[in-house]
Design brief:
Length: 489
C-alpha cells in the first residue's frame, strides 16, 4: 500500500477538474489534501517508516529558497509596527492611511505590508500547498515505477481534458465543469474557464508525455526479418502507439483552444529544448530526433490542417498593439496594462503590495480609460513583481532556474532513458511556461501552479533516482543513501 503516493496522484488528477481549482472551495481541497499528506509522511518518518530520499537532499537549496518564499509571503500579512511598514513600503503605508481616513478611523499602530492581508493569507495557503506537493514529489517518487506512474497520470489527465474540450466544442454542447459555459464559447476550454489556462495545462501534460515517449524510444538492434516483424507488431500494438495517440489528442486540444501564445510556446519551446537536448544527450538514438521532428511536422501539417491551426495563425497575424483601452481587456491592449503595471511595480518595488492584492491595487493606476475588472495582470512576471516585489520575484525565478539547471545536467549525465526523458520533459515545461507567462497568468491558476510545482521537483528526481541502465549508477546511489529505503510511502 502506498497511500501517500496515490494521494499525491489523486490531487494531481483532481486539480484541473473544478474550473482549474480557481474557486475558494476548490483550492481549499488542494490545501487541506496536500497538508494532510505532508503531515502523514512526517509522522511516518518520525516513526521510522520513511526515509529522506537522495532527490530531497540534492534539492536542499531549492527547498531553502521555497521556505524563504513561504515565510516571506506569510510576513506580508503579519501586523508590523507602522514605522516599519512606512520604511519598507511607503506606498503601502499611504494606502493604509487613506483607507483609515475614508472609514473615519485613526491609523492603527500596527499595519501590514499587504494592502489586502486577507487575500494575502489565501495566497499563502496556496503557496503552502504548492510547497507540500513539491516536497512530497521529492520524497515519495523514489522508484522508476512511481516516476513512470506519475508521468502517466499527467498524460491521462491531459488527454481527458483535451478530449472533453474537443467534444464540447465540436458538438456545440459547450459545457464546462457540470455547468453551461458562460465565457469562452467557440473555443476549447475543458473544465477550465479560460482557454489560455487549458492551453497552459495541456503544455505541462504534453511535457510529461513527451518525456515518457523519449524514454521508450530506441531499443535493441534489428538484424533479421523476424526481428523486424516482431518490432512492427510491438509498435502497432504496444504502449508507444497508445502514448502517441494521447499526445496527438492533446495537440488537437491545444490547437482548438486557439490560444496564440499557448501554441506559439509549444512549437517554439519544442524547437529550442529539442535542439539543446540533442546537443546534451550523449548517444541520443535516431528515433528521438525523428520523434521530435514529427511533433513539429506531423502535428502542424496534418493535425493542424484538420483542426484549425490556420485559425491560430490568423489570430497571431491579426494581433495589433493598440492603446485604445475602452474595452475591458482586448488581448491587443495587454501592452498598455503592462505599462501601467510597471508604474505600479515601481511604487512597491521592494516588498510588493501583498500576494493576491493586484485586483485591489491596480485600479488606482488604471485611470487612462481602462474599464472593467482586472483581477490579474496578463503577465505572471509582472504580477509577481507587483505583489511580492523584487524579493519575491527573485526567489521564484531562482527556484525555476535551479530546476532548469538540474534538468539539463540530468540530460547530460544520465544514461537511463526514463531519467533522460523526465529531464527533457521538465525542461520543456519550464521553457513553454516561461514563454506563455509573458502574456498570461497561468501561475495564478491553482491547477497549473500545482502541476508545475510537481514538474519542477521531477528535475531532481531525474538527477538522483537510480537508473536501470547499469549497476554503476545503482552502486553510486547506494553509497549516497545513509538510511534504508522507505517501505510504506
Amino acid at each position: 500500500m502506498n497511500p501517500i503516493f496515490y494521494g499525491l496522484l489523486g490531487l494531481l488528477a483532481w486539480a484541473p477538474l473544478p474550473l482549474g481549482s480557481n474557486r475558494t472551495w476548490a483550492w481549499s481541497i488542494l490545501v487541506v489534501g496536500s497538508c494532510l499528506l505532508a503531515i502523514a509522511w512526517l509522522v511516518g518518518y518520525l516513526l521510522g517508516h520513511f526515509a529522506v530520499t537522495d532527490a530531497f537532499r540534492r534539492a536542499r537549496w531549492a527547498l531553502g529558497a521555497g521556505a524563504l518564499w513561504t515565510l516571506y509571503v506569510g510576513l506580508q500579512s503579519v501586523a508590523l509596527p507602522a514605522e516599519w511598514v512606512q520604511f519598507l513600503s511607503p506606498h503601502a503605508y499611504d494606502a493604509h492611511a487613506v483607507a483609515a481616513g475614508v472609514l473615519g478611523h485613526p491609523l492603527a499602530a500596527t499595519l501590514t505590508l499587504s494592502i489586502d492581508p486577507h487575500t494575502t493569507r489565501d495566497f499563502w495557503f496556496k503557496t503552502l500547498a504548492y510547497g507540500c506537493m513539491f516536497s512530497l514529489t521529492l520524497l515519495v517518487v523514489d522508484s522508476r515505477q512511481r516516476l513512470e506512474l506519475l508521468l502517466k497520470t499527467l498524460v491521462i489527465s491531459g488527454t481527458v481534458q483535451a478530449v472533453y474540450a474537443s467534444v464540447m466544442l465540436l458538438s456545440g454542447l459547450e459545457y464546462g465543469f457540470f455547468i453551461k459555459k458562460y465565457v469562452g464559447q467557440g473555443n476549447a476550454t475543458g473544465t477550465f474557464i479560460n482557454r489560455n489556462h487549458l492551453a497552459g495545462y495541456l503544455n505541462l501534460c504534453l511535457a510529461a508525455g513527451i518525456g515518457l515517449m523519449i524514454a521508450k524510444l530506441g531499443g535493441e538492434a534489428i538484424h533479421t526479418w523476424r526481428q523486424r516483424i516482431r518490432s512492427i507488431a510491438r509498435l502497432l500494438l504496444g504502449e508507444k502507439t497508445r502514448l502517441r495517440i494521447y499526445l496527438i489528442a492533446m495537440v488537437i486540444g491545444l490547437v482548438l483552444t486557439r490560444s496564440r501564445m499557448g501554441n506559439t510556446a509549444f512549437f517554439a519551446g519544442t524547437l529550442i529544448v529539442g535542439a539543446i537536448g540533442l546537443l546534451l544527450m550523449r548517444n541520443a538514438p535516431r528515433s528521438t530526433m525523428l520523434f521530435l521532428a514529427s511533433l513539429i511536422a506531423l502535428d502542424i501539417l496534418i493535425v493542424g490542417t484538420w483542426f484549425g491551426v490556420d485559425q491560430v495563425a490568423k489570430r497571431i497575424q491579426e494581433t495589433q498593439v493598440t492603446t485604445n483601452v475602452g474595452n475591458p481587456l482586448p488581448a491587443e491592449d495587454r501592452v498598455e496594462v503592462d505599462q501601467l503595471a510597471l508604474d505600479y511595480a515601481k511604487d512597491y518595488l521592494l516588498t510588493g503590495s501583498g500576494g493576491g492584492s493586484f485586483y485591489v491595487t491596480f485600479p488606482t493606476y488604471s485611470n487612462r480609460g481602462i474599464t472593467g475588472f482586472l483581477d490579474h495582470a496578463h503577465n505572471d512576471y509582472l504580477q509577481l513583481l507587483t505583489e511580492t516585489g523584487v524579493i519575491g520575484l527573485a526567489l521564484c525565478v531562482l527556484i525555476v532556474l535551479m530546476a532548469a539547471v538540474q534538468a539539463l545536467l540530468a540530460l547530460r549525465r544520465r544514461n537511463d532513458p526514463l531519467m533522460r526523458g523526465t529531464a527533457f520533459g521538465v525542461a520543456l515545461a519550464i521553457c513553454w511556461l516561461a514563454i506563455h507567462s509573458t502574456v498570461d497568468f497561468n501561475m495564478q491558476i491553482p491547477a497549473n501552479a500545482l502541476t508545475m510545482s510537481v514538474m519542477l521537483a521531477l528535475a531532481w528526481v531525474a538527477a538522483a533516482l537510480p537508473g536501470g541502465s547499469g549497476a554503476k549508477e545503482f552502486r553510486k546511489h547506494r553509497k549516497r543513501s545513509a538510511r534504508p529505503p522507505a517501505t510504506l510511502c
